[in-house]
C-alpha cells in the first residue's frame, strides 16, 4: 500500500493515505488526501500499519512540490517514516523482547 505519493494528476502536490480509510466510501478508489490536512491520528495509523505490512512511499523530490508548506510537511514525514522502515526489524525485535519478558513475569506470578 502506498502511504505517501507525489501526484501531478490532480495538480502537483503531496498526498497521504490513512490505512484505516484506504478507499473512498462506497468505491474502490484510493482515499488520498492532501498532505496539508494530515493529523496526529493519521500519522499514528500510518506508523502502526507500516510496522505490520509492506508499504511504499514516493521519495521526496523538492522540485516536484512547488508549495513550500507541502514540501516541508512531506519531507519531514517521508524522512521519519523512512527512518522507521529502516529500523523496522530492530523495533519489532524490541517489542517481541518486551512482550516475552512480560509474558514470563505473568507465568511466574500465576504459578504462585
Characterization of this structure:
- With 112 residues, the protein is an alpha+beta fold.
- The protein has one domain.
- The protein is 48% helix and 12% strand.
- The chain is built from three helices and four strands; from the N terminus they run βββαβαα.
- The chain has helices spanning 40-50, 68-86, 88-111; strands at 2-7, 13-16, 33-34, 56-57.
- A four-stranded mixed β-sheet has the order 3-2-1-4, with helices on one face.
- It is elongated and about 65 Å long.
- The mean pLDDT is 89.
Q: Which helices and strands, and how do they pair?
A:
Layout: E1 2-7, E2 13-16, E3 33-34, H1 40-50, E4 56-57, H2 68-86, H3 88-111
Parallel strand pairs: 1-4
Antiparallel strand pairs: 1-2, 2-3
Q: Helix-strand pattern, N to C? A: EEEHEHH
Most strands sheet: 4 strands, mixed
**How would you classify the helix and strand content by structural class?**
alpha+beta
What is the subunit organization of this protein? single chain
Distance, first to last CA: 47 Å
Based on Cα principal axes, name the global outline: elongated
Please tell me the total number of domains. 1
Parts with pLDDT < 50 across at least 5 consecutive residues: none
Please give the order of strands in the largest beta sheet.
3-2-1-4
Q: Count every beta strand, where a strand is a DSSP E run of 2 or more residues.
A: 4
Report helical residue fraction. Answer: 40-55%
Helix count equals 3
Q: Give the strand content.
A: 5-15%
Mean pLDDT: 89
| Cα-atom radius of gyration | 18 Å
Amino acid at each position: 500500500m502506498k502511504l505517501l505519493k507525489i501526484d501531478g494528476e490532480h495538480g502537483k502536490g503531496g498526498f497521504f493515505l490513512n490505512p484505516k480509510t484506504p478507499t473512498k466510501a462506497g468505491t474502490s478508489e484510493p482515499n488520498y488526501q492532501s498532505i496539508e490536512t494530515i493529523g496526529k491520528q493519521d500519522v499514528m495509523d500510518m506508523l502502526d500499519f507500516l510496522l505490520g505490512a509492506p508499504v511504499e512511499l514516493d521519495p521526496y523530490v523538492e522540485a516536484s512540490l512547488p508549495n513550500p508548506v507541502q514540501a516541508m510537511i512531506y519531507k519531514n514525514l517521508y524522512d521519519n517514516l523512512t527512518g522507521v522502515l529502516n529500523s523496522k526489524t530492530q523495533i519489532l525485535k524490541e517489542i517481541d523482547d518486551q512482550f516475552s519478558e512480560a509474558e514470563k513475569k505473568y507465568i511466574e506470578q500465576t504459578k504462585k
